[in-house]
Design goal:
105 residues; disordered C terminus; alpha+beta; 2 helices
């Protein structure tokens, strides 16, 4: 809990002086958020391979680059999170999809 309070203090300070925000500040805060999530037993995941609708949310598609790639993850938009084995947020992904030409239309 003290780590989360410290992070809230940093964000409050930055909100009061937005001109003080630098790329280094953002990197520092991103690292601290990751550390606090780990302390809370939250685990990030960034799968590749086949889309699993129990773990992934397809937020867009891209034409399949070839046979066997349909319904595979093409890119990650946002990582997913679990907590103690439970899905907290699915990984948001771009999936490969057949185009009309691939389907013989």
């Amino acid at each position: 809990m003290p780590e989360l309070i410290e992070l809230a203090d940093h964000l409050t300070h930055l909100a009061a002086d937005p001109d003080s925000i630098t790329a280094d500040t953002v990197r520092f805060l991103a690292e601290r958020v990751t550390e606090v999530l780990e302390l809370c037993e939250a685990e990030a995941f960034d799968d590749d391979g086949a889309v699993d609708l129990a773990r992934h949310m397809v937020v867009g598609t891209r034409p399949s680059p070839g046979p066997g790639r349909t319904d595979a993850i093409a890119a990650t938009v946002r990582v997913g999170y679990t907590w103690r084995g439970l899905l907290v947020r699915p990984q948001e992904v771009i999936a490969y999809a057949d185009t009309a030409d691939d389907q013989g239309a």
